[in-house]
Structure formats: structure tokens, C-alpha cells
Amino acid sequence: MGTTDFSTREYSYDEVSDDFDLEHFSLADEDLKYKIPLMKAAKEVSNIDISLFGSPWLAPSWMRDFANGRMTLKGESNGKYYDTWAKYYVEFVEAYNTQNVDLWGLSVQNEPNAGYGRLANLPNFTMAYTPQLQRDFIKFNLGPALRSNNITKDLKLIIMDDQRDFASIWADAIFGDEEANSYSDGIGVQWYSDSAYSTAALGSIHKKHPSKFIIGTEAGFGFNKEIIGCWDRAEQYAYDIISVSRANIRSEYFYKIRGLSILLGCRMPCHHRLRMHIVRW
């Protein structure tokens, strides 16, 4: 949904200040020239269904503020900026629908824990949420906005979308709230801290919240130059998949690969970040 931390520029779909009705919302060249054609091409050549989900990094510049070491939406929780930000998700899904690209789900926010501290002020980075703030955004703004629209009402909503070290805290805060839980379908977990934290947190989440899926949302290499013929990266991917799968068997819950979604970083047309769906069966 707009700019990412791999983008060559910061952009959004509505940079007209105070456009709370989003009358100037429109997709960017990155969507129309790169992302959407790639998604369509992948669907055409695939012999399995491909499930795609959207994930925001940053709200439009006029909707957010950087203060006290964090990047957040302006105003109070459940205020007009939060209402408009929720509408923005709906507009995004509708815009992709008009391009004949249907989404399976949405992540509330990419890496909300990383929106705090010095990293939050990096170009194109991310918005900060505490579990409690995201809980309230879901139950007061985003959840009702999605459910009230025919195109978005059946989308899967993914909470957190960050590292596994805080996953249990996020799951308990949001799935433990009756209203927020009613709008939330699963929790997204990225892989960047997997070597430091065991898979025990995933088992704990499943035991407490067995109706919710756990989805691997992001795993990426490429921070250094490409090394042709280096298998270390493939081995790390394989090790991570195997370790999670083994933990799943011990915890008696099962996963199947639902497909791949690719978010173009637009550093160059062929440079991408892979976001892999592994959804509980």
C-alpha cells in the first residue's frame, strides 16, 4: 500500500493536505507499471491459486507526525485521522479491484514495533503502533470500515506483522479483546529475529487462540550485493521453514502454502521483497 522501505522515493495515494474524504486518492506509477502487471503475470503462469495481501508502511505525509521518537498518525486514537486512514485501506482495495486484482487480505501495518526510536525516521520506513493502539484502531476504525464495504467485507485481517519476539503480547492484546478479535483473522510473523527467539511463542499463540491462523509474512535477503552461486541464503530459508514446521507438528497445528505475494521495492524493476503466505489449514 504505497511506499516501502525498498522504494526509491516516498509516495502515497493521496498527498492533498486535509483531504479527509480522499477525493484525490489514486494509485501510483509503481502500482500501475510494476506491481499490478507483475501480479497479473504471476497469476497467468501459475497452476495454483495465488493469494495476495496488502500491507502499508506509511500513511500520507499530512496524516502522520514524528515526535518523541515515533512515527504515528496525528491526533487522538479513534479521531478523524484514524477514520480517514481506515477509509484509505478500503480505497486501496477498491482501486486494485478496478484493475482486476482481488486481494485475499490486509496487514494492519508492516513492522509496527519498528516505528519507535531512530529507525522510525528513516525514509519510507514505518508507522508505530503499540498492541493496544492497534487493537483500538481495528475495533473502532478499520474493522467497521472493512466490514461495511461489499468489496472488503470478507478480507482476512492480519495483526502485528512483525518479529516473533513480541508475538504473544500482540496476540493476547488483540485476540483477547472481544470486538477487535471479531475483526481479526490471524497474526503475521516475520523472520528477522528467528535465530534469537524460539518457535515456542507460536505454539503458545495457537494454544490460546486456536481459531486464528499464524502467517509468515516476510523473509528477505539482499541487504548486501548479490552473490551468484551462494547457497547460504537458500539454506537459511530452508532451515527457517523446517524449524517452524517441526514446531507446528509438536503443537499439533498444520500449515499449507497458500501462495506467494510479491511487493516490488522498485529499487529496480526486478528487485523485490518476497512475502510468503503460510496459512494454517
From TrEMBL:
Pfam families: Glyco_hydro_30
The keyword Hydrolase is assigned to this record: yes
Catalytic reaction(s) noted: a beta-D-glucosyl-(1<->1')-N-acylsphing-4-enine + H2O = an N-acylsphing-4-enine + D-glucose
Assigned GO CC terms: membrane
Keywords assigned by UniProt, alphabetized: Glycosidase, Hydrolase, Lipid metabolism, Signal, Sphingolipid metabolism
Single GO MF descriptor: glucosylceramidase activity
Enzyme Commission numbers on file: 3.2.1.45
TM helices/strands, residue ranges: none
Superkingdom, natural source: Eukaryota
Domain Glycosyl hydrolase family 30 TIM-barrel as annotated: residue spans: 2-243
Gene Ontology biological process terms in this record: glucosylceramide catabolic process
Family: Belongs to the glycosyl hydrolase 30 family.
Listed name of the protein: Glucosylceramidase
